[in-house]
Design brief:
about 325 residues; seven-stranded mixed barrel
Length: about 325
């Protein structure tokens, strides 16, 4: 697709068929920008907002570099432990690895980002169907989290020698569909403990459409943090991100490889950890597809091997899958 077509959206409009039986295509210039950036240092805990972020192939800084596991070594999420939403990680030194933990009624805990002098013992972790490894962050973090969550658990950090990659099936399918312009887009995308891909991208206008439907039913609107995106775009029509094959931001190309099927976590209020039937019911009423109830798209990136900066307010060039 040409650079020109990357900067416009071909919007199909239909006139009265009795007077003009053929559709015409109207070319409308569009501006799409980065509205917000978010990382989630501990899988399924609260997020960290960024005005700018150094993007690596594995995601935003320290995104899902930690995971909480139960006494059987099974990873924990808000699906079963909604109070995880109230655990607020902090990154006081940016990408250096230092971590703080805060939660209501708990003293703040600092977790050193310094890696052990010797290769730390690997602990096996399965994230859904994918196996990877972490290392244990020690008893102080385990006791703090166990006390707040009310269940015996431990905190693991991604192991330096872990090698988990985004779904080759979805990445290869994207490369096949976009071979004409994808160039030398990498086929392998290592990342940490996120569910399946290093980036989740959502459109602000999609949230506004969902909220319009909620309010029309007498339900309260919900914030974007219910959907836990990494990158929020402003300027698309509602759910138009479904029809992007990619977006370009400076030297980076984000490949949109899979639409995101939603679990029940958007029904959990991230400020209170209380769950309700909405917005899940309303979302399912208009976003139910064979591959699930969809909101947002999963992505991988090229052009970020040396660390490229992405800022709130940056323009992006969408590539539509027409």
């Amino acid at each position: 697709m040409s650079d020109f077509r990357a900067r416009v959206y071909l919007r199909h409009s239909f006139v009265n068929p009795s007077t003009h039986p053929f559709p015409y295509t109207q070319i409308i210039p569009m501006t799409v920008r980065i509205l917000s950036l978010h990382s989630y240092p501990i899988k399924s805990c609260a997020g960290v907002n960024h005005d700018q972020a150094t993007i690596l192939r594995g995601g935003l800084p320290m995104d899902r570099h930690w995971v909480i596991v139960d006494s059987k070594g099974i990873f924990m999420t808000q699906r079963q432990y909604a109070r995880m939403a109230l655990v607020q990680p902090g990154l006081p030194d940016g990408a250096n690895g230092d971590l703080t933990l805060s939660a209501p009624g708990m003293p703040q805990l600092a977790v050193s980002g310094q890696l052990p002098a010797n290769d730390p013992q690997q602990v096996s972790v399965r994230i859904w169907a994918a196996d990877t490894t972490g290392f244990d962050e020690g008893d102080a973090a385990a006791q703090w989290l166990s006390q707040f969550l009310g269940v015996s658990c431990r905190l693991l950090r991604v192991h330096p020698r872990a090698n988990r990659v985004a779904s080759p099936k979805h990445v290869d399918a994207w490369l096949t569909r976009n071979r004409e312009w994808a160039g030398d887009f990498p086929a392998s995308h290592p990342f940490a403990f996120a569910d399946g891909f290093p980036f989740l991208v959502a459109g602000q206008q999609s949230l506004e459409e969902l909220n319009r439907r909620l309010v029309a039913k007498g339900q309260p609107a919900v914030p974007m943090n219910r959907f836990r995106p990494n990158i929020v775009l402003d300027g698309l029509d509602p759910y138009e991100e479904d029809y992007l094959s990619a977006m370009r931001a400076g030297a980076m190309t984000f490949a949109f490889v899979k639409r995101c099927a939603r679990c029940p976590i958007p029904n959990i209020d991230q400020a209170t950890a209380l769950s309700a039937p909405e917005p899940g019911i309303t979302l399912a009423e208009h976003r139910q597809f064979p591959d699930g109830v969809l909101f947002g798209v999963n992505a991988v990136v090229a052009g970020a091997d040396d660390g490229a900066l992405l800022r709130v307010g940056d323009d992006v060039e969408p590539e539509f899958d027409l």
